[in-house]
Write a structure and sequence with these properties.
With 300 residues, this protein is of the alpha+beta class. The chain folds into two domains: 69 residues, no CATH class; 206 residues, Phosphoenolpyruvate Carboxykinase, domain 3 (Alpha-Beta Complex), CATH 3.90.228.10. Helix content is 30%, strand content 25%. The strands form five sheets. Strands 5, 6, 7, 9, 10 and 16 form a six-stranded antiparallel β-sheet that branches. A four-stranded mixed β-sheet has the order 8-15-14-11. Strands 1-2 form a two-stranded antiparallel sheet. A hairpin with a 7-residue loop joins strand 12 and strand 13. The longest helix has 24 residues. 32% of the residues are buried. GO terms for molecular function: NAD+ poly-ADP-ribosyltransferase activity; NAD+-protein mono-ADP-ribosyltransferase activity. InterPro entries: ARTD-AVP (IPR051712), Poly(ADP-ribose)pol_cat_dom (IPR012317). This is PARP catalytic domain-containing protein. It holds the Pfam family PARP.
């Protein structure tokens, strides 16, 4: 199932990526582009492309461009959305039925190390509720970021999607899940982050839990954590310290000053508590992470 990228989303993307200096310019650019696409579509239909090889090529090219503008919503085994989800005007939270395949899969992902970790059953809190986060606008942004990563030659057609955890601290996870940016690196501390200013996600839920990075829900008395999809691309394995970089005149950069992954990489993995085995995966760009599930659990 797919849906054509919306006019409003195209305006936002042109404006936020700096391609257009103002929202008004972006709106005009998108309007011009849509008008041109409609003219091209009509021209293609008018051509007798079955008898004209050049017209056939033009039609195929147009079909490919249209396909590239469509968003594919989750439809992978147990991780899928209902067909109506793509038409929603606002984000929704759906209770995942306990005992269902989806519930069992999410629960096991929470209990196991994920990302590049491999240890099973490392987190033992009692889960009280799992909610699926359906936010089409945020998924649109994640989807196009994922597609861009796939197209990078070094990634060989794979965005290297991983499941990871994220604790939202004192911020209600629902507020993050309702936005169009999602987990924003700007909420990271300004200084003294081991791997710079980034969005930090955990392979082991115990890290978020023990470090008090989880949100304490005042109405239910439970704690909450997010299970996220991370389009990690090519991951740089790093340790706290300096590394060789072309971004510095001295040729060295400290990991605490990172504002983007090292050259030829899309994300970073590192031990955030040296010697503990708690590894984090870091993103330095917006829309690389989608908060797919809100998980509530007992603190003790």
């Amino acid at each position: 199932a797919g849906r054509v990228f919306t006019h409003a989303a195209q305006v936002e993307r042109l404006h936020l990526t700096g391609l257009m200096p103002s929202t008004q310019d972006a709106q005009q650019a998108v309007a011009d582009g849509l008008a041109a696409a409609e003219r091209s579509s009509q021209l293609a239909l008018d051509l007798d492309w079955e008898e004209d090889p050049e017209a056939a090529v033009a039609v195929k090219r147009l079909e490919r461009k249209v396909a590239e503008r469509e968003v594919q919503y989750p439809n992978e085994g147990w991780f899928k959305w209902e067909p109506t989800a793509e038409d929603m005007s606002s984000p929704q939270f759906y209770d995942v039925p306990e005992g269902s395949e989806e519930y069992n899969q999410v629960e096991q992902l929470m209990r196991d190390e994920t990302g590049l970790g491999a240890t099973k059953n490392v987190w033992h809190r009692v889960i009280t509720k799992i909610e699926r986060v359906v936010n089409p606008a945020l998924w649109d942004n994640y989807y196009f970021t994922r597609q861009a990563l796939k197209k990078k030659p070094r990634n060989k057609g794979s965005a290297n999607e991983l499941w990871v955890k994220h604790g939202t601290g004192k911020t209600d996870g629902r507020l993050i899940c309702r936005g169009e940016v999602g987990i924003d690196k700007n909420y990271s501390r300004e200084t003294n982050n081991m791997f710079g200013k980034a969005t930090y996600t955990a392979e082991n839920a115990k890290y978020c839990d023990q470090k008090n990075y989880c949100y304490d829900c005042p109405t239910t008395g439970t704690r909450q954590m997010l299970l996220c999809r991370f389009a990690a691309g090519t991951i740089a394995q790093m340790t706290d310290g300096t590394y060789d970089s072309t971004d510095s005149a001295e040729g060295k950069v400290h990991t605490r000053n990172l504002i983007k992954p090292p050259d030829h990489h899309d994300s970073v993995r590192g031990d955030v508590v040296p010697g503990s085995g708690f590894f984090a995966l870091m993103s330095y760009r917006d829309y690389q992470i989608y908060p797919a599930y809100l998980v509530s659990f007992l603190a003790k």
